[in-house]
Structure formats: C-alpha cells, structure tokens
Design goal:
This protein has 227 residues and is mostly helical. It folds into 2 domains: 1-7 and 22-92 and 155-178 and 185-227, no CATH class; 95-146. It has 10 helices and no strands. It has helices at residues 2-14, 28-56, 69-89, 96-116, 121-130, 132-141, 149-153, 155-169, 186-202, 204-226. Helix 3 (69-89) runs antiparallel to helix 10, helix 4 (96-116) runs antiparallel to helix 5 (121-130) and helix 9 packs antiparallel against helix 10 (204-226). The longest helix has 29 residues, at 28-56. The chain is globular.
Amino acid sequence: MIRTTLSEFAAFVRAPQYRTPQGLRGQWGAWAVLVALYLAGLALLGAALTLWQRALHVPSAEAFHGYGAAVLALLVVLVAPAGEEVVFRGWLTGRPRALWLLLMTLVAAGLLALVSAHKFETVASLGAVATVLPALAGWLWLQRAAPPGWFVRQFGWWLRGSVLVFALAHLSNYPQVSPVVLPMVLPQAWAGLVFAHVRLRLGLPASILAHAVGNGVALGCALVIGG
C-alpha cells in the first residue's frame, strides 16, 4: 500500500491527470502515507531554509504575530486549512458549480480590494455583497453539470497554476519581498502539490484534514523551539 501510494503521487507530480476523488472510506492508510510524506518533505525544506534564512538574514514571516496561543491555534489549525483548501483546491475537480463559486469569490475579493484601497468604496462594497446571490444561484443551478472538456484536457496547467498561486500568495507574510525571500515559500509549493493530490485522490475533506494536521505539527514544533 505504501509503495502504491508513493508511486501514484510520483506519477501525479510527473504528469498530473484529472481524476474523480474516491473519498476517505477505506483509504485512511493512503491518507496517512501522504501526510507522512508531506511532513517529511516539510522537515527537509525547513532545515534547508533555516540555513538559507540565517546566511542571508532573511526576515521571518509575520502573518500571525501578535496573536495569543489559543487564537493562533484556531487560525492555523482550523480556519486557514478549511479556507485555503476551499479557495485553492476546492475547484480542482472542475465541477462547474465549484468553478462558478471560485469566479464569484475572485470578483468579491477584487471589489473588497477596492474598498481597502479606498476607491469607489460604496459601489465596491455593494458589489461585493451582491455577489452572494448569483454565487448561490449558480451553485444550485450547476449542481449536476459535468466538468467541462477544456478543464479536463488542460488539467495539468490548472494544477500547476494552483500550486504556484498558493505558494506566491504566502509572500504576503513577509514584510518585504525580494529574490532572497522567494525560496521561503517552497514549503507552501510542496504543500500545494501534496494537498492537491490528496484532494483529487481522496476528496476535499481529506485535504482539509491533511492541511490541518500539517499546520498543527508545524505550529507545535515552532512553539517548542521558540520556547
């Protein structure tokens, strides 16, 4: 089982192929192997990047500074995994209802960005709220629609794009972005790749759970090391 699971992951990395998730029932062993693989890769990357960070004086991430331990655990172990898996990998099955929801989410995010920038605040705020109705309507209307052929044919590019965007999005955790900071998001790229495979093989709940476990282990190690 271990060899088969690892072989499937290696094949997925070499040439990502669209597939319908099997679900977690009877697949907990494969899930555990993939989580262990993720944590092993995370440990190796963490050790290498610690040396990189010290050698080049790269600043530490500041995403969750100022939070208490309880709030930090809630954000890192529960909120972030659920939210990030839904946004970055929930749509990887190509179901039209998920793609439509992603589009509405991006539209709303763009409008909220205008609000944050203090541009067209009233119109942008109303527009963001107004996306809720078409998002819900599309979600219900498209619930039986099959994945479009263009998505299935170009799945490898969609997968790679999701991994890249997920990694680069975490650059916002750093106070200043520069070429020496770019390697610091390699753990997120690794996470995006492993969690995408988990999502496509075992389903969205499986990838959320894997993400939560990974974040929990990373947070626990950080708290222990940090004293």
